[in-house]
């Protein structure tokens, strides 16, 4: 079993971010209490079994204080059997990480940190409106280790306009020096409802050129490969098998429960989407209502989701599973498209498993959507 907890608060809005969060933290305690109540209300959503991974995402979960974190973890332990070796991840921003907060996280049972570093280059951090400095980004990794948390992932963003390849290489060199075991690297995307989206509309920002983004991706994958990182998902790289067990479970279509404003849940046949609005969420939970919209997944939905997530991973997608999920429609609709893609050198088949080639990784999402069925 897998549990995701969305903490919908941030100190300030990063210019590229379209996740659900509020910078008004006055009702942080009340929302946390509501999330704890939602955990209880939905404790039977998943079939019986051990909780193998717990993931505090956001927003900024490192804004939780000790009482809030304990409330959530105590509630989880009261209502679920947490596996002794469960992976318990907390997303954190470097400016929240000091010796005291890290000791508090570690004592509470957090055994994996996913740190939103994004860049070690100060002008990039200012450009993206990050709340931390390059120095804090560097120091927090050492502090986390001193607090006993060794399983550390960092997020990096590439294809930042006005950047150059040397800056990307220097960001990577810093990560190598810090001996990080897991790196998630995301191409900057400009979403309409963000500050960058509005700058783009007003022509204060140039669109990110596809060719530049592709070059940065190639530099990134090559450099990470040379330093012993395995690309086990298009944007995720791990050394010595330090995969994110939680995210891998999403990519392998395992059911999970998501609680908190904007969180999603999946039970294998349907999805539920919590409202992305803190006040509405709070009001509903206080009246014992789950503020979620429900969607039954059709065979086509299930097939297309499997393609979209599975093709991005080193495990690929099983042709037999595509047939089962699509009730036989996949081969009928997409056999000739598969042949075309194989001839272009974008995909290959190995013992009944469809995998992207190195060239195909550049177009992962486009390839998946071209293979969608109706
Ligand atoms: S990137 Fe993270 S810290 Fe920045 S606004 Fe989004 S959720 Fe908050």
UniProtKB/TrEMBL annotation:
Keywords: 4Fe-4S, Chaperone, Cytoplasm, Heme, Iron, Iron-sulfur, Metal-binding, S-adenosyl-L-methionine. It holds the Pfam family Radical_SAM. Gene3D superfamilies: tm_1862 like domain (3.80.30.20). This is Heme chaperone HemW. Its main location: cytoplasm. PANTHER family: COPROPORPHYRINIGEN III OXIDASE, RADICAL S-ADENOSYL METHIONINE DOMAIN-CONTAINING PROTEIN 1, MITOCHONDRIAL. The keyword Chaperone applies. InterPro entries: Coproporphyrinogen-III_oxidase, Elp3/MiaA/NifB-like_rSAM, HemN_C, HemW-like, rSAM, rSAM_horseshoe, rSAM_sf.
């Amino acid at each position: 079993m897998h549990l995701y907890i969305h903490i919908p608060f941030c100190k300030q809005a990063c210019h590229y971010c379209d996740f659900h969060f509020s910078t008004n933290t006055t009702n942080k305690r009340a929302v946390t209490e509501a999330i704890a109540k939602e955990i209880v209300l939905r404790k039977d959503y998943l079939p019986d079994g051990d909780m193998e991974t717990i993931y505090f995402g956001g927003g900024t979960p490192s804004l939780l204080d000790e009482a809030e974190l304990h409330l959530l973890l105590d509630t989880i332990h009261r209502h679920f059997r947490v596996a002794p070796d469960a992976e318990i991840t907390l997303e954190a921003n470097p400016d929240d990480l000091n010796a005291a907060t890290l000791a508090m996280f570690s004592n509470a049972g957090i055994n994996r940190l996913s740190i939103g570093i994004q860049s070690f280059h100060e002008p990039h951090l200012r450009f993206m409106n990050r709340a931390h400095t390059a120095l804090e980004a560097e120091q927090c990794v050492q502090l986390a280790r001193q607090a006993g948390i060794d399983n550390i992932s960092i997020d990096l963003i590439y294809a930042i306009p006005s950047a150059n390849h040397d800056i990307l290489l220097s960001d990577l060199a810093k990560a190598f020096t810090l001996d990080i075991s897991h790196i998630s690297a995301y191409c900057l995307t400009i979403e309409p409802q963000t500050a960058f989206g509005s700058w783009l509309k007003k022509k204060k920002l140039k669109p990110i050129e596809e060719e530049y983004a592709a070059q940065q991706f190639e530099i990134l994958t090559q450099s990470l490969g040379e330093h012993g990182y395995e690309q086990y998902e298009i944007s995720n790289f791990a050394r010595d098998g330090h995969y994110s067990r939680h995210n891998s479970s999403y990519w392998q279509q395992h059911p999970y429960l998501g609680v908190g404003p904007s969180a999603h849940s999946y039970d294998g046949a349907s999805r539920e989407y919590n409202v992305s609005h803190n006040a509405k969420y709070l009001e509903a939970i206080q009246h014992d209502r789950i503020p979620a919209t429900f969607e039954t997944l059709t065979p086509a939905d299930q097939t297309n989701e499997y393609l979209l997530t599975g093709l991005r991973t080193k495990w690929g997608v099983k042709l037999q599973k595509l047939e089962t999920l699509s009730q036989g429609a996949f081969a009928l609709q997409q056999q000739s498209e598969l042949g075309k893609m194989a001839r272009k050198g974008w995909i290959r088949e190995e013992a009944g498993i469809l995998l992207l080639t190195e060239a195909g990784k550049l177009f992962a999402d486009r390839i998946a959507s071209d293979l969608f069925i109706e």
